[in-house]
UniProtKB/TrEMBL annotation:
Gene3D superfamilies: Ribonuclease Z/Hydroxyacylglutathione hydrolase-like. Thiolesterase that catalyzes the hydrolysis of S-D-lactoyl-glutathione to form glutathione and D-lactic acid. It is an enzyme of class 3 (hydrolase). Zn(2+) 2 binds at residues 58-59, 131, 169. Keywords: Hydrolase, Metal-binding, Zinc. Its EC number is 3.1.2.6. PANTHER family: HYDROXYACYLGLUTATHIONE HYDROLASE, HYDROXYACYLGLUTATHIONE HYDROLASE GLOB. It comes from the Bacteria. This is Hydroxyacylglutathione hydrolase. NCBIfam families: GSH_gloB. The keyword Flavoprotein does not apply. Monomer.
Amino acid sequence: MEVILVPAFADNYIYVLRDAASGKVGVVDPGDAAPVQAELDRRGWSLTHIFLTHHHDDHIGGAAALKERYRASVVGARADAHRIPGMDVALSDGDRTVFGEQTARVFAVPGHTSGHIAFWFEAAETLFSGDTLFSLGCGRLFEGTAAQMWDSLQSLRALTDQTRVYCGHEYTQSNGRFALTVDPANAALHQRMEEVAELRERNRPTLPTTIGMERRTNPFLRADDPGVQAAIGMDGAPPVEVFAELRRRKDHFRG
Ligand code: ZN
Ligand code: FE
């Protein structure tokens, strides 16, 4: 499965997918129709599927126009059916959805929003995590609790190491500045930040990342790590409480 990054707005990524075997073309979280349209035109592709991770405007804003133009099928969370217009396929945790020769498993990942889902394409080992898991960070808690978000992140953390992670925003460098304050002795994090700095200097995306990389470097996946716990003075505390404290600190972080 081919994945193309389409930058939108200030720091969003929209993803265009193509399953080579079937020729099906999908898009994940088209907050804006225009850049997607331009990418499809350039390649001479027609759209069949629109995958939506959550109801925020910067993720669904272009969906209606693209659906109208291509008669593409809108795939989203059943829990968000009341606030995502035009949903054709409504999915719940553990469901599978077919995209050409690919199958995606759906994870309900509440926290950023209550209905947020992530799509894991099994054979391609590719995750679309929306605003739940970012590289070196996680989404703000707008509609969910820290406990819900910690559960959600643990279910994504359990995916295969080599799973490529495509998230909703280019936040990696600013996330990393915070990460260094709560995991300062993590050599893998320092090394990743050097790579990130180089990429950003050349205006290149820092994505995809991988689950293995995030498990080693993302403090929000490391609330049960002794090094992180020690660095914030919470040795031996329940991971969910450590996670909540990390999220609170990040909310107030000015890097
Ligand atoms: Zn969002
Ligand atoms: Fe967003």
